[in-house]
Specification:
about 260 residues; 7-stranded parallel beta sheet; about 15% strand; binds nicotinamide-adenine-dinucleotide
């Protein structure tokens, strides 16, 4: 029943084979989606090469640079989608950034530039990419972003990223309300802690994972592919009645009080 054949899906946020976006891309591909992949370009083209090699087996029909702090690259990404695909069905927003210094210690020490940068990359980008996707989602669509419990409750060291995720979760609701009339659904997956490039910047991430392994109902944390399965579900017709929601894929950790 989970069939994404004929759907065009843009996946952002793949940096390496540990990325949650990589788990999502694999499961969307498995479900039959036609993939477009963006990568964060760097001066030496290292990321382009690395991501291109990784995603090759998934035969993406689009592969474009997209730094979400760069308006021209965002415009070019969606112009390319319009030219090559004509329409977009699925947008996966799976990226975030905060300075390592702002992911430990006192939250009140967060600098103004650090705060603004974290919110710009991790929160505003969902708003901007969704706005650019909207006119291309002519047959309706599904937008999925990634959040974490630290946007709803205090998690030690998550600090400014918690504020970014709180804003992201509220953005999901405002976007869902705006776009529902066009049959565009907008949801977030709140994933349990997973070791990735981004999460390694959060102070004490391994302790967080071990804590979840002890406390969560399933006595473990989750994998990138499990998050990918939930994303594929949310992007499919099986989830046609679901929008504006935060779906916890965290081995049940969120229900626990102690
Ligand atoms: N790993 C976890 O424990 C966990 C848990 C819950 C939610 N998340 C969320 O999942 C998402 C993916 O993170 P991940 O853990 O897979 O780490 P990751 O490091 O693999 O992915 C983060 C991605 O963000 C991209 N990025 C950073 N700045 C960018 C910019 N300016 N423009 C475009 N892309 C940019 C990076 O290139 C990278 O691909 C993030 O939103 C993260 O907050 C992660």
């Amino acid at each position: 029943m989970l069939d994404l054949t004929g759907k065009n899906a843009l996946v952002t946020g793949i940096a390496n084979n540990r990325s949650i976006a990589w788990g999502i891309a694999q499961q969307l591909h498995k479900a039959g989606a036609n993939l477009g992949i963006t990568y964060l370009p760097d001066d030496r083209g290292k990321m382009e090469k690395k991501v291109a090699e990784l995603v090759e087996p998934l035969n993406p029909s689009l592969f474009v640079p997209c730094n979400v702090q760069n308006d021209e690259q965002i415009q070019a990404t969606f112009d390319t989608i319009k030219d090559k695909w004509g329409k977009l069905d699925i947008l996966i927003h799976c990226l975030a950034f905060a300075n390592k210094d702002d992911l430990s210690g006192d939250f009140s020490s967060t600098s103004r530039p650090g705060f603004n940068q974290a919110l710009e990359i991790s929160t505003y980008s969902l708003v901007q990419l969704s706005g650019a996707a909207k006119p291309l989602m002519r047959d309706g669509g599904s937008i999925v972003t990634l959040t974490y419990l630290g946007g709803d409750r205090v998690v030690p060291n998550y600090n400014v990223m918690g504020i970014a995720k709180a804003g992201l979760e509220m953005s999901v609701r405002y976007l869902a309300s705006e776009m529902g009339g066009q049959n565009i659904r907008v949801n977030a997956i709140s994933a349990g802690p997973i070791r990735t490039l981004a999460s390694s910047a959060v102070g004490g991430i391994l302790d967080m994972i071990h804590h979840v392994e002890e406390i969560a109902p399933l006595r473990r944390t989750v994998t990138q592919l499990e998050v990918g399965n939930a994303a594929a579900f949310l992007c499919s017709d099986l989830a046609s009645g679901i929008t504006g929601q935060i779906l916890y894929v965290d081995a049940g950790y969120e229900i626990m009080g102690m």
